[in-house]
Amino acid sequence: MFFSQNQLKWLEQIFFERFGIKFNFELTQETIVLKKEGSDKKLIFTNLDSAFYQFGKTQLGCYEWNAETEGLVGAIDPVLKAPSTKPLSTPIFSPVEQDIYVNYDVLGLVYWCLNRLEEVGRTDLDNHQRFPAIHSHAYHYNYLERPIVDEWLNILGQIIQQVWLEVELKQHTFNMKVSHDVDSPSPYAFKSWGEVLRIMIGHLVKRHDMKAFIETFWIKFATKEQLHEYDPHNTFDWLMQQSNANNLTSAFYFICGGTTDKDAEYTLAHPVIQKLMQHIHQNGHEIGLHPSYATYQAPELIQQEADNLRYACEQAGIDQTTFGGRMHYLRWEHPTTLQAWENAGMSYDSTLSYADRPGFRCGTCFEYPAFNPMTQQSLNIRIRPLIAMECTIIDPIYLGLNVTPQAENKFLELKDKCRRVSGCFTTLWHNSYFKKNEMLKGMYQRIIES
Ligand SMILES: [Zn+2]
């Protein structure tokens, strides 16, 4: 009814990655039928909801369904949220002979969430032209902090096992990904002496801070080939140590161009940056791309900056075969930016979280193969949803929990939800965020502890 063949193929891929089973998706007039090779049994999806295939502000309402009423187990809570244009027709799962009818459009939900259909063409954007959480369906119906796609696929996994008793579903293990956008490797090293002098005078006259006055001078003076150990933004070794201690790989995303005042002060060719990138690489951590502020609607600029990164790595003798990354300021226009990353030959993007609220913008914490809903093409690039950016939870302009136990709990709650669906907790901490705040460092250590 609403599916193209490419859509069905993409869904087959999603199911294969999740369950480890190759299903055939067949479209009939009003239903989608899932079949498994060598078996006559079927899962039949009825009640397909056309709102799941429409772009922009959605007509979907939101209902609730208790899995326990049908003898099933919710991964996070027995009650699942169910976006739908009409009240649910229950039971959702009804066995008929050897088949099971599914009376809620789980496939539509998966398609709609993962491909961000509600974001396409939106004009109700924030001051950085981003689609904000507060205008999303998930925020409105209070499920942004639930990995709704993973919860429903988990339920579907239980149903698959009822139909095909002999199958063994693919088992996933919880994991974590930490990444660091390198907006500013140093507050002084890349500024002119004139600018540094103004900062020093501020330390002295406004803040009466003699120590900061001297330190600023000394860091600027002594930073020639590499970052100074007392530089407040130089947390690179510390971040790598934390990752090593927890068997994680840190990904550092560098700004590789840009012309606005929101972009980096450094260039990739600077000896300090070359050294830093080499140092990260030699320690077994990852280098990635952080496209500059004005690139999110400009595929040719993203291509240019990706090329800049590859060239800089080559010059620095860094042998990394694939590159991923994240947009600066999480600026994203769907699917323009996604297609630009694809065209630039990037292997994954990890932008998709909202700046104003943490949680599951894509409804999932699993990485997944991207699909362009406008062109109906499957893409090579993978989407790695971001679940929690530090400033989203901590900063007053967003959720504003500050450096408090409440903020720490928010991170841990989200991490726990990822764990309960055996997914991936992806979190972003800027190298420049910690300054010398030991409380913040302790919080970070506890959050990424396995
Ligand atoms: Zn950034």
Write the layout of secondary structure elements.
Elements: H1 5-19, E1 23-27, E2 32-36, E3 42-45, E4 61-66, E5 79-84, E6 93-96, E7 99-102, H2 106-114, H3 137-140, H4 148-163, E8 175-182, H5 193-205, H6 210-222, H7 236-245, E9 250-254, H8 271-282, E10 286-289, H9 299-315, E11 324-325, H10 336-343, E12 348-349, E13 368-372, E14 377-383, E15 388-389, H11 390-394, H12 405-420, E16 424-428, H13 438-448
Parallel strand pairs: 3-7, 8-9, 8-16, 9-10, 11-12, 12-14, 15-16
Antiparallel strand pairs: 1-2, 2-3, 4-5, 6-7, 13-14
Helix pairs in contact: 5-6, 9-10, 12-13
Bound molecules: zinc ion (ZN).
Zinc ion is lined by residues 181, 183, 290, 328-329.
Description:
α5 (193-205) runs antiparallel to α6 (210-222), α9 runs parallel beside α10 (336-343) and α12 runs parallel beside α13 (438-448). Helix content is 33%, strand content 16%. It has 450 residues and is α/β, with parallel strands linked by helices. The strands form four sheets. The chain has a five-stranded mixed beta sheet, covered by helices on one side. Strands 10-9-8-16-15 form a five-stranded parallel beta sheet. A four-stranded mixed beta sheet has the order 11-12-14-13. It folds into two domains: 5-163, no CATH class; 175-186 and 223-448, Glycoside hydrolase/deacetylase (TIM Barrel), CATH 3.20.20.370. α10 links the parallel β11 (324-325) and β12 (348-349). The model has no long low-confidence stretch (mean pLDDT 96). It has helices spanning 5-19, 106-114, 137-140, 148-163, 193-205, 210-222, 236-245, 271-282, 299-315, 336-343, 390-394, 405-420, 438-448; strands at residues 23-27, 32-36, 42-45, 61-66, 79-84, 93-96, 99-102, 175-182, 250-254, 286-289, 324-325, 348-349, 368-372, 377-383, 388-389, 424-428. It is built from 13 helices and 16 strands. The two termini are 45 Å apart. It is elongated, with a radius of gyration of 24 Å. Zinc ion binds next to loops. The site of zinc ion has 5 residues, from loops.
